[in-house]
Amino acid sequence: MQRVSELSIYGEYLRLSSRASGKMARRDGCNAFPQKPDSVINVKVEFGEGEGKVPLDNIAKRATAYKPKERVIYKMIKEYIEAKYGFKVHTAYIAEVKRELGLPMYDAPNAVEELKQPRKHQTAEKAEAIKDALEYFGIII
Q: Which of 9, 55, 88, 139 would disulfide-bridge 134, Cβ 3.0–4.6 Å?
């Protein structure tokens, strides 16, 4: 597979000069761009295998190394607990366990100032299942 990329400094010159109506003045009074370019430089880079080409394998490896970890959401935790333990947990229980462990919490945009009913606390069995799920997803060690 072979790809060719071209970088034209003259194209960049045209883009910048047309934006500034043909002239851009520097602070010292000189024009930043001459009326005509002194030269045009075209750089061609070939990707692939062989001499003088940039290998794509190295680029692909570096790109995968920079990918961030997937963000674990409450839905994923709930699905894991239901599949492994066979019962459902409420998101409030997950938030309560995270608060107990001192994990970072995000402010909910739909949070109310005062609850209409008192919050029920989770059972010890559910708390242990939530901690197991947090360990599974690498949130706690």
A: 139
